[in-house]
# Entry
Amino acid sequence: MKKYAQKGILVSGASGAGKTVAAKVIVEELLQDEMPVLVFDYTRQWQRLLEKNTDEEMLDRYAEFGMRRSPKGFKGQVVHSVPDLDKLLASKEATVVDLSDTCDGKERVDKVAHMLDQLLEYFQSQEDSEELRLLIVVEEAHL
# Structure
């Protein structure tokens, strides 16, 4: 998955088509490979990534998709701004930036744009790498 994510992944589709579910599968696979993931989330859906799944009905459906019944929660943290990037990259965990308190769409876009600018500035000062160093997810980016 790291090889494919290196070039970028866009998950798009109609409302309710399963975009977030598909993106979470990608994120979970990368987290199992100890790839740090940064998620910008205003829906609070991604915070569940850090919790163990205890929904028996959901767990019973794992077999339908060829999945093992391993309802683990991933290590990580919920923050309200981009954390220290050196620590983020070394963590090999999920970091969820909770934007749920930002109701205004323009304000949310401005916050995410500012944080992405910080990331760009950071990576521009780093040596180029052939390896994926961080997966960034922007939930509801179209909004």
